[in-house]
Specification:
Blueprint lengths: L2 H20 L3 H18 L2 H20 L1 H4 L5 H31 L17 H14 L7 H17 L2 H6 L1 H16 L8 H23 L7 H6 L1 H4 L1 H10 L3 H16 L3 H6 L1 H10 L5 E4 L14 H5 L11 E2 L9 H5 L6 E4 L5 E2 L1 H21 L9 H7 L9
Antiparallel strand pairs: 1-2, 1-3, 3-4
Helix pairs in contact: 1-2, 1-3, 1-5, 1-19, 2-19, 5-19, 6-7, 6-10, 7-16, 7-19, 9-14, 10-16
The structure holds iron/sulfur cluster (SF4) (2 copies).
One iron/sulfur cluster binds next to helix 17.
Length: 404
Amino acid sequence: MTLVESVSLLLGLIYASSLLYFGGKRWGAALISLMALAAVIVASIWPLLVGTAIAAAVFALVHRRSPQLTQGEGRADEVRDAVSHFFALSLLIVGLQYVVYHALLLNGLGGHLTRPDVVDAFIPIAGGLELKAIVTLNLWDKHHPAAAVMLFTVMVSAIVCKRAFCGWACPLGLLGTQLYRLRKRFIPGDALPPAWLDWPLRMVKYLLFFVLLYLVVFGMPSQALPGYFGGNYHMISDAKMGAFFLSPSLLAGIIIVLVLAMAMWQQQSFCRYLCPYGAGLGLLSFLSPFKIRRSDEHCLKSKGFACDKCTRACPARIEVDNLITVRSDECQACMRCISACPKKEALTLSTRTGISLSAKGVAVILMLMMFAIPLIAAACGYWHSEVTDEMRAYLLPYLHQIGH
Ligand code: SF4
Ligand code: SF4
């Protein structure tokens, strides 16, 4: 685990602990702190030890300058924005380190920087194959273990708190929202597709998801997995994914430009129409006990007032004001509807039995899962790739020739 990854993980866990502490859940805060400390001690690697000190210092600094941020005060939108910007910033720094690492490697200067393993989150097919190998063969891949860890983590997050990963953590979602806002500043208005076209377009992401699922489940028999994991293609699969974005072919370039244009044209259009990851999480989110629930007793509309603020705030275009329970696979638990509602008790993210989650609660659960599971995996020795710098340096010049 690199220093940058360590600082991000520990900062996230300290933030989660702080939200609990200032929310009055001191036992929860103590438990997270102890768990993080235990994992750091068990792992006993210098980036985690130094990262803990840096994360604590950074957090203390931010707390002094902006205590309302570290205490999670403010409306749900502010808490969500703080969390999503934190995730995006962490990933941006990690991405930069990954690019510099490869640049050094290609110029014969390997060994000066470590590859951040968390980038393996961007090779979910490899992660899916690794999970399959664990389940069917008890085989734990050593070349990209973080891919399996991150895929597992995101899947668990959807089962617990719906598509909160999409609404709170995904940097592509945040980028899309910013591009959409930018476009609206210069070209106001929306050009939404009609309902008859919207539904088939939404199904495109499920089509992509089921193609990928088919490849993982049926595309390669379990017996072939050990050979695949030992092959050059798997060893260098993260660099292949990186090359798609950083030095795209003409076709890849056209796809990227189209996706960015879509994001500008309609809010969350990539999440809604194309993202296979979002499709998988949408299906898993049906298992989550937490749903947006509207109370007829408190809702202004139920009392005869003309109110649809929740529906107008929803980026997933769900008609919240007409539903008692939002069961949609498009709901990202973003809580914009709750923030927009003038009646405090009218909307909740809650279970059928009445256990409700505040924005702080979602932030804590999400950060706990996204940061604690990788930390525990690292402490158990299942995080760092065993593909050496020498092997990477040898394979990188043949990147475009290597196939599977
Ligand atoms: S229903 Fe509410 S929580 Fe779900 S996507 Fe819409 S605004 Fe977000
Ligand atoms: S914004 Fe609140 S009060 Fe208005 S319709 Fe939605 S739930 Fe009811």
